[in-house]
Amino acid sequence: DTAVSQTPKYLVTQMGNDKSIKCEQNLGHDTMYWYKQDSKKFLKIMFSYNNKELIINETVPNRFSPKSPDKAHLNLHINSLELGDSAVYFCASSQGGQGGNQPQHFGDGTRLSIL
Amino acid sequence: AQSVAQPEDQVNVAEGNPLTVKCTYSVSGNPYLFWYVQYPNRGLQFLLKYITGDNLVKGSYGFEAEFNKSQTSFHLKKPSALVSDSALYFCAVSPPQAGTALIFGKGTTLSVSS
C-alpha cells in the first residue's frame, strides 16, 4: 500500500495555464506538507497543514493555493503557471506537526514542466 | 538565521569501505535531527533521527549517525558501503519551536564504486 500518493506523477503544460496536484495519505497522520525541489535538488517548504488548518505558509506567490478537504488530503492548485514553476513538488505527512520529533513520509513527487 | 550545512556536494567511496556524510547545524535550542535518503525519481525516505539520549543512533539499511552537541554536528556513517547506497542524502533539523518548518541541508550525493 502506498503511504503518501500524489497525482499526477508528470505534468507538462503551457505557461499561463492553471493546474492542480493531488495528495493523499493513508497513514492517519494529522499534518501534511508541500515542498518544492528545484533543479539543484534544493528542498523548500511551501505549506504545512495540521488538522486541515494552515500552519506554515512560506514566501510563496499567491498563485499557489493549497486546499485540505480533510486530514488525509492536501491538494495544490497553481494559477497562471510560469517557467520558474518548473520543479518537482513533493507532498509529505507526519504525526504531530512541525517542531516535532516524528519523521515525515514523502510521496514520489510530481514533475512539473512548463513549456 | 537557522541553517543546516552539508559541506560536501559529493562523497565517493569504494564498496566495502566506511563512509561518512557530514552535517552541521545552526539552530537555537535543542533541535531534533534527521537523515533522509532520496533515490532517483523517488521521494525522500527516512533513515534515522536523534531526539535525546545516546549520541550514536542506528537507523535503516545499516546506517548510523553520531550527534555531537559541542560541534553541533550530526554526521551519517556506515561501516561498510554498498553500491546500492549510492543516492542523495539530506540532513534535516526540526527546531524545537512549535509551528516551525523542518530545515533541510542542500544534500550530498553519495557514490559507491564497485
The general outline of chain B is globular
Tell me the fraction of residues in β-strands of chain B, as a range: over 45%
| Domain module count of chain A | 1
Please provide the count of β strands of chain A: 11
Which range does the strand content of chain A fall in? over 45%
Helix content of chain B: under 10%
Unreliable residue stretches of chain A: none
- Element string of chain A (H = helix, E = strand): EEEEEEEEEEE
- Which overall shape of chain A is indicated by the principal axes computed on the Cα atoms? globular
- Major sheet attributes of chain B: 6 strands, mixed
What key attributes describe this structure?
heterodimer, A: 115 residues, mainly beta, Immunoglobulin-like, 55% strand, B: mainly beta
Write the layout of secondary structure elements.
The complex is a heterodimer of chains A (about 120) and B (about 110).
Chain A: E1 4-7, E2 10-13, E3 19-25, E4 31-37, E5 43-50, E6 53-57, E7 64-70, E8 73-78, E9 87-94, E10 105-106, E11 110-114
Parallel strand pairs in A: 2-11
Antiparallel strand pairs in A: 1-3, 3-8, 4-5, 4-9, 5-6, 7-8, 9-10, 9-11
Chain B: E1 3-5, E2 10-14, E3 19-21, E4 24-26, E5 32-38, E6 44-50, E7 56-58, E8 64-68, E9 73-78, E10 87-94, E11 103-104, E12 108-113
Parallel strand pairs in B: 2-12
Antiparallel strand pairs in B: 1-4, 3-9, 5-6, 5-10, 7-8, 8-9, 10-11, 10-12
In short:
Chain A is mainly beta. Chain A is built from no helices and eleven strands.
